[in-house]
Amino acid sequence: MKSPFLAIALVVMGAVGSAANADVVHNTVDAFDIINASQGKKTNDAGTALVPIVDANRNRVENMFDGSLTTAFSLGLGDTPGNGGSLVLTIKPTTNVIASGSLVEWTNLNSGHQESATVSLGVDGGSWEEIGTLKNTQPGNVASFSNLLQPYALLSLGSAVNTVHTTFVLTVLSGNFNSLRFQDTSPYLLNGTTKDRDGFDIANLSVTSVPEPTALALAGAALLVLGAARRFKA
Ligand SMILES: [Ca+2]
Ligand SMILES: [Ca+2]
User: What is the value of pTM for the model shown?
Assistant: First the structure.
């Protein structure tokens, strides 16, 4: 190596190159720095009152990452729509930023369980920006979403898995977010006919992140060092 400047430049550029390729898929519990579940309630078997504890087989966050669509983490219901259970996830490493995500929701066909949840993006578990609401399938309706934060992030419907599972897709267009929050907004009584329910059910969740855009700044630094090396040789 003729120039120490060139050697430094290549090392810096190499680091930037590997960082740029280091997209991370978060689809296990260990792929998140923090998972903070605060479940709401469920209704009793008559569907007329709230019971404090969500069913035991629906309170494991691991259910979202086990590859099975018949296991789920349920957010749980609130005393009024909008204050139900919540789930906060911060990716690891926390210096990465969320680029996209997909969620599979599970509701038995014609169950009458009208469920919904808001989606928010945040930084280190705070500074939340609500980006929209996800709604499940239900009799006379189809799964749907609303977008609140365009053009910073978009929610869309993925290809249908089957009649009881719906895929929602998150695309982050700008902003450095490392946290994601789901908050249940399901009504727990619907026309007086609601049955036992546990709120919005997340059967599968996957998030993809990329290194923070400071990699661009590092690339700029590498070019500056290269420029210095050329001037040194001249
Ligand atoms: Ca599952
Ligand atoms: Ca459901």
Answer: 0.81
